Write the structure tokens for this entry.
Amino acid sequence: MTNLTNIGDLLAHAYQIEIEAVERYQMLADQMEVHNNSELEKLFRKLAYHEGQHAEEIRTQMTDANVPELKPGEFRWAGPDSPEAVDLGDIHYMMTPWHALQLALKAEQQAFAFFDEFRRSASDPDIKRLADEFAEEEEEHVAMVLKELEKYPEPDDDWDDDPDPPVSPE
Ligand code: ZN
């Protein structure tokens, strides 16, 4: 990440992080529905709702501050995806609650790191304060996921042994 210093950069990146978080949690919730794990499904739906609410708030701030949405090539993350996005390849059809929570944890930690770096490098007090709010919010999400992980031990190495695997098209 290079030189993100203005309010527009902060809001536009934050908006993208939230939008992708919504998608991620909806996907993870769908996975847990397949597993008949209604407790985790509820948690992921709740998080999706949370992040969606936040995305709306940020959108309003963007409109007020006249900040345009960024186009795909204009983001300044280290990789191709935003910090909170989950690699779709990591979502496995036999994914256990533990795996789903690990993905969520990774994404939330990366989102936190993004805003944390932002608040450290910002010199403008208003930007610092806003980045601070975002960072704290992500920190809460990390804590929520960690708390949930206490209930789900890491599965054995053979968690993905499937006696009847799906046939992949040639
Ligand atoms: Zn989050």
In short: The chain is about 60% helix and 0% strand. The CA atoms of residues 13 and 113 lie 13 Å apart.
